[in-house]
From TrEMBL:
InterPro entries: Znf_C2H2_sf (IPR036236), Znf_C2H2_type (IPR013087). It comes from the Archaea. Residues 80-104 form the C2H2-type domain. It comes from Pyrobaculum arsenaticum. The lineage of its organism: Archaea, Thermoproteota, Thermoprotei, Thermoproteales, Thermoproteaceae. This is C2H2-type domain-containing protein. Pfam families: zf-C2H2.
Amino acid sequence: MATELCFACTDKDYARPATTITCSVCKKEVSWREAVTHYMGHGKKSGNDVVCPICNTKVKQQEYRNHVRRHFAAKRGLFYICGICGRSFVTLRSLLVHISKTHE
């Protein structure tokens, strides 16, 4: 059962539990635990750079993983919200650690 990315895509103040998300690039349903890794697989290599499949920005290969993670971070008021599961964090760094441990 696919679930929308409530906090990242809408102005709703609640989170729906997500088990899968639909990839905006290939429309495949992906487990929320593998969302970042799946999106990283869509990157196109261009020399030492990678073109992000979400925003079409050229990013250095060593910075690409963090770049993709940031696409799933949303700022709401004083908190940072995970765009995949809806958990909130006080700092962006703690959110990025959560994304790396939970959604990759």
